[in-house]
Specification:
With 562 residues, the chain is an alpha/beta fold. The chain is globular, with a radius of gyration of 25 Å. It has 10 helices and 27 strands. A hairpin with a 7-residue loop joins strand 1 (7-14) and strand 2 (22-29).
């Protein structure tokens, strides 16, 4: 699956005054320039009632007593008399909550932008990435993953043509990282019981009194077996799996965890790129608490520093409430959600590319079933968001639609990350030599980018084979370390001409970045964002910011024929 799938990013925020149910929704990123739209709306009472009914059925310890009366007044539409057997109350509740969430989010101009983005994705024969930035902490616990446009259509996180994840725009830039050639997994097994003493200053009454003992050693052995025994991923029998290496830490101290993560880089070994954590955790204001030992916990803020420093691309947490914000009890509002406090969101904020956590409590059987399919998909080179969708479908089939298991995994992805942990096999390009005649009878014109700065030493990059990739990531042909340059920023490529009209080959710039590319041609700088633009010899470029260094695109003039 191509990593350059078009992306539509949405955001939700509460308007002032904060106690009012007035919200703004808008498009943060769109595959088309006119798709950046805004819409103000009110959270309807019917949606609040459905949400409370959901909590009382599937997570009663999280339900708010003050809203129980409203949930009790809820009346679901009757099931169709033609259906045999008739759907249960839980099935109808899940479906109606999903439909109400969809209708509330995709209203007016937001819906139009979504449909137009879908059209672009269909035209490119690619799925549309949909990313949701929920900026109001009270809305984060909602199961946005179950949104569906109408009965009979799949939920957004199960749709084959959509790749759904959550995100946050309040992030540190991604650090440069090389394309991984293998899955190097550190599996951390934490303590299997939460100590009776809990952090003070937070409301923890919604947590259950008993935490089940986790079969952590069995989980480690099973995960290792799954990774080592995945069958070939293609019908031809060719094994396209990447090599997978799993190392396990059982109930480590914080120092032992950090030392293991850092040891790979210091010793020159291939560093870990995936962290799996299995154990208990609870929400807390500083990114939750993960219990490594009976008397030892690490919070999300502390963990984020070492994960970013050691180059972890994906962090997976088989821990209850790892995607939930903490809740504080105040004199005005009981159990008020703390903004930016969930483990998943804290890690993304600090620059971890992808984090998978749990929205609510999850059983060991459910989590292990999910992880098995997820791990197989990763080893078959699937993008992370597609692998999550596949594993979620497995949970639905195993534990049924009317049970919450398939709704529990929550994927967060950094806005600069394309979801590709390992480069897919079908993206390995075979390129022509730089001056080889093409099948159309043309030679690819030689071109280069050069640093346009008279006060600096000359620097030049050839456009090999009619293609060059520019970005901050080490996998690019031209690596620019400026902080406003995206990991995969843009590419310059040569498109063949038409032999019938004698049209010559032409070079183009295609932008994939977060902030765009500035192009100076003749009179003024123009911003190109997620677009294609033709390049003439002498065109100057700035990647990401007007403060960036200037590069000049030059097409070499071939020597005259003898």
């Amino acid at each position: 699956m191509p990593s350059e799938s078009p992306s539509l990013s949405l955001a939700i925020a509460r308007l002032n005054p904060p106690e009012a149910n007035h919200f703004a929704t808008w498009v943060v990123d769109s595959p088309l320039p006119s798709g950046y739209v805004h819409h103000d709306c009110i959270l309807p009472e019917s949606l609040s009632q459905l949400w409370q009914a959901w909590l009382e059925m599937f997570s009663p310890e999280s339900a708010s007593p003050s809203l129980s009366d409203a949930a009790a007044q809820l009346t679901l539409p009757p099931a169709s008399p033609d259906l045999d057997p008739k759907p249960s109350y839980s099935s109808r509740l899940m479906q109606h909550l999903g439909i109400h969430l969809w209708q509330w989010l995709f209203q007016g101009p937001i819906q139009n932008s979504f449909h137009r983005s879908q059209g672009i994705a269909l035209g490119q024969e690619s799925p549309l990435r949909v990313r949701l930035d929920v900026r109001d902490a009270d809305l984060i616990p909602l199961p946005w993953e179950i949104m569906q446009p109408q009965p009979g259509q799949p939920a957004i996180s199960l749709n084959q043509r959509l790749l759904f994840s959550r995100t946050t725009c309040d992030v540190n830039p991604l650090s440069a990282r090389q394309v991984a050639e293998s899955l190097n997994i550190l599996l951390v097994l934490g303590h299997n019981e939460v100590p009776p003493s809990q952090p003070t200053g937070t409301a923890i009454e919604f947590l259950p009194d008993h935490f089940p003992l986790l079969e952590l050693e069995g989980e480690a052995a099973e995960l290792t077996r799954v990774l080592a025994g995945t069958p070939p991923s293609s019908d031809t029998g060719r094994d396209d799996r990447v090599p997978c290496f799993v190392n396990t830490l059982i109930r480590p101290s914080v120092a032992e965890l950090i030392a293991e993560l850092e040891s790979r880089r210091e010793s020159g070994q291939t560093p870990y790129n995936v962290l799996f954590y299995g154990g208990h955790g609870i929400p807390a204001p500083d990114g939750g608490q993960l219990f490594l030992q009976a008397d030892t916990a690490i919070n999300g803020t502390e963990l984020a520093q070492v994960l970013v420093r050691c180059g972890i691309t994906l962090a997976v947490f088989n821990a209850c409430w790892s995607a939930q914000p903490a809740r504080e009890q105040t004199s005005e509002v009981p159990y008020q959600a703390v903004p930016g406090s969930s483990l998943a969101k804290v890690l993304i904020h600090h620059g971890v590319p992808a984090v998978l956590g749990m929205r609510d409590s999850i059983t060991d059987e459910e989590a292990l079933s999910f992880i098995q399919v997820f791990a197989r998909a990763l080893s078959a080179r699937m993008p992370i968001d597609r692998a999550v969708a596949l594993a979620r479908q497995h949970l639905l089939a195993l534990f049924k639609f009317n049970q919450p298991a398939w709704t529990l995994p929550v994927l967060y992805m950094h806005p600069e990350f394309d979801g590709q942990l390992i480069e897919p096999a079908d993206e390995i390009r075979t390129e022509l030599p730089a001056n080889s005649p093409t099948g159309l009878g043309y030679a690819v014109p030689r071109a280069r980018l050069r640093l346009h700065a008279p006060d600096l030493p000359p620097q030049m990059w050839p456009v090999e084979g009619g293609m060059v990739r520019v970005g901050r990531g080490e996998e690019n042909d031209i690596v620019l370390q400026e902080r406003w340059v995206s990991s995969r920023h843009a590419e310059i490529f040569c498109r063949n001409g038409d032999p019938e009209t004698r049209e010559e080959p032409t070079y183009f710039l295609r932008d994939f970045s977060r902030y765009g590319t500035l192009v100076f041609d003749r009179q003024d700088w123009q911003r190109v964002h997620h677009q294609e633009v033709a390049l003439r010899s002498g065109t100057r470029l700035k990647f990401g910011s007007s403060q960036g260094q200037v590069l000049e695109f030059v097409i070499e003039t071939p020597p005259p024929a003898p």
